[in-house]
Design brief:
Helix content is 42%, strand content 14%. It has 71 residues and is an alpha+beta fold. It has one domain (7-62). Strands 1-3-2 form a three-stranded antiparallel sheet. Strand 2 (42-44) and strand 3 (47-51) form a beta hairpin. Helix 1 packs across helix 2. The protein is globular.
């Protein structure tokens, strides 16, 4: 018997992805996918979805690229 996916491995729609990325537009999410910055979506029936864990990993790469803050 398979266990349910963890919270980070569940599939999310573009609206939730946009919210996780700082309330950007869904169109911006599509642009990030087109540029290869986000992975291609998984189709569930005909609806595109992204793994939440992959979106969070993208945010971590942005954080790692950020210059250190000056104090």
């Amino acid at each position: 018997m398979n266990s349910p996916p963890s919270r980070d491995d569940r599939l999310i729609d573009f609206k939730e992805t946009a919210h996780l990325l700082g309330d950007i537009s869904e169109r911006s999410v599509r642009r990030l996918i087109a540029r290869g910055e986000l992975p291609p979506p998984v189709k569930v029936l005909s609806a595109p979805r992204l793994y939440r864990s992959e979106v969070l990993a993208y945010l971590q790469t942005l954080k790692a690229k950020r210059p250190p803050s000056r104090r």
